[in-house]
Write a structure and sequence with these properties.
Strand content: 15-25%
Structural class: alpha/beta
Distance between the termini: 26 Å
CATH superfamily of the largest domain: P-loop containing nucleotide triphosphate hydrolases
Order of helices and strands: HHEHEHEHEHEHHEHEEHEHEHEHEHEHEE
Number of domains: 2
Shape: elongated
CATH topology of the largest domain: Rossmann fold
Number of helices: 15
Bound molecules: adenosine monophosphate
Strand order of the largest sheet: 3-4-2-5-6-1-7
Radius of gyration: 23 Å
Number of strands: 15
Largest sheet: 7 strands, parallel
Length: 440
């Protein structure tokens, strides 16, 4: 199967050749032809499968070949995404794939001022990538109308619902013309997603691509039981012990991400955090620095990291287990891609055992436990059994442990040989990041 066989036009084929995309990924092979024909589509595919090009290429082609020139304050194709980062990323993909085509694209999201976005929409845009809240604001302020709308894409629809965008989405759907093409992409087909699909899609083509995730045998997953208070310390120990050039760490809360970054920076390890409360430019800057190899450890919350094009990392560490079990699969999907081997380590405290059981039920296996000498927990993590059951409740400790009084406590300074402290600058650039299309 080639891109030409899928029916893409010359300018797009030339762009793909320049990007060195030789063959369509499975989601592209399945989605491009039906989208070109104008069909609705429901696809189970997550980041890393090539789904963005899967919808961007055929939409760019349709917008180029069909329909009127875009009028002022109008939009012809609307792509809704859950986060600002994903908005930037998807917009960048449209720009890359649409280079040389007579189309305008733009991205709008919250956390930055409204005015420049209103100005930019005046001329009208062929493709608008937007987060639901900001789009609704702009619509309510008459910065744009949907009379010319031909296509709607819901990207990471499940995540939009998880993030509580259901109300905004309903209001937006009500404002859109009924005659349009609708494409829905979601990592999971939960009941609310099926319901949304039932309401929005007409006779959709169905595409399901097996996610490169927990099932991937090349990611070695295990958990290290540890007391909550010693997680940061354990992470530093693992970082030194494994010598990862770069690692992505997931923490549950904003506070947790900032605390770990503070600790890392104190020890001279270049690190950055991304979370929902960080201003948008700072989040993008952190991500860019990580991709450029200037930052060794990127600490993220699920909300901020979902959908980010961060791939081929040697290691992912879960400082905390995610509250939503599916997020575990998304997190570890960042490593072990394209045949590379990766590790995914979860630092698990006794009070996370319910989350652990839910994750094990989802991935269909028990995560092996490997205690780290010197970090054996005082609060034991109860055994789990497949099926999401916790066998034993965590035991209450008899007496409050004294911080730092754990057996065999290792001091941070002793993890590195003298004169061998982790280097801040000399971080290997990850070649994998070259995979993302560059601006032409
Ligand atoms: P996505 O799942 O859309 O986030 O895409 C994941 C990555 O795969 C991006 O960095 C794309 O540039 C890249 N990509 C998408 N399609 C192809 C292809 N057919 N061949 C090679 N790389 C691709």
């Amino acid at each position: 199967m080639t891109f030409a066989q899928l029916g893409l036009i010359e300018p797009l084929l030339r762009t793909l050749e320049r990007l060195d995309y030789r063959t369509p990924t499975p989601v592209q092979a399945a989605a491009i032809a039906p989208i070109l024909k104008g069909r609705d589509l429901m696809a189970a595919a997550q980041t890393g499968t090539g789904k963005t090009a899967g919808f961007a290429l055929p939409l760019l082609q349709r917008l180029t070949l069909e329909g009127p020139r875009v009028a002022s304050n109008s939009v012809r194709a609307l792509v809704l995404v859950p986060t600002r980062e994903l908005a930037e990323q998807v917009h960048e993909s449209f720009r890359t794939y649409g280079e040389g085509l007579p189309l305008r694209s733009y991205a709008v999201y919250g956390g930055v001022s409204l005015n420049p976005q209103m100005m930019a929409l005046r001329k009208g845009v062929d493709v608008l990538v937007a987060t639901p809240g900001r789009l609704l604001d702009l619509y309510q302020q008459n910065a744009l109308g949907f009379a010319q709308l031909q296509a709607l894409v819901l990207d990471e629809a499940d995540r939009m619902l998880d993030l509580g965008f259901a109300r905004e989405l309903d209001e937006l759907f009500a404002a859109l013309p009924r005659r349009r093409q609708t494409l829905l992409f979601s990592a999971t087909f939960s009941e609310p997603i099926r319901q949304m699909a039932g309401e929005l899609l007409r006779d959709p083509a169905l595409v399901e691509v097996s996610p490169r995730n927990a099932a991937a045998g090349n990611v070695r997953q295990w958990l290290v039981p540890v007391d909550k208070k010693r997680k940061a310390e354990l992470f530093m120990h693992l970082l030194a012990a494994h010598g990862w050039p770069q690692v992505l760490v997931f923490a549950r809360t904003r506070k947790g991400t900032d605390a770990l970054v503070g600790e890392l920076q104190q020890h001279g390890i270049a690190s950055e955090s991304i979370h929902g409360d960080k201003p948008q430019p700072a989040r993008l800057r952190a991500l860019e620095r990580f991709k450029a190899g200037e930052v060794r450890v990127l600490v993220a919350t699920d909300v901020a990291a979902r959908g980010l094009d961060i791939e081929d990392l040697p290691g992912v560490v879960n400082l905390d287990l995610p509250v939503v079990a599916e997020d575990y699969v998304h997190r570890i999907g960042r490593t072990g891609r394209a045949g590379a081997s990766g590790v995914a380590i979860s630092l698990v405290a006794a009070d996370e055992v319910e989350q652990l059981a839910a994750i094990e039920a989802l991935i269909g296996k028990t995560l092996p436990r490997e205690e780290e000498p010197g970090f054996e927990p005082d609060h034991r993590v109860p055994e789990t059994a497949l099926g999401g059951q916790v066998l034993k409740k965590p035991k209450k400790p008899k007496q409050k442990p004294v911080p730092g009084a754990g057996k065999g406590r290792v001091h941070l300074g002793s993890w590195f040989e003298e004169g061998e402290k982790p280097k801040v600058k000399a971080v290997r650039k990850m070649p994998s990041f070259g995979g993302k299309p560059k601006k032409g």
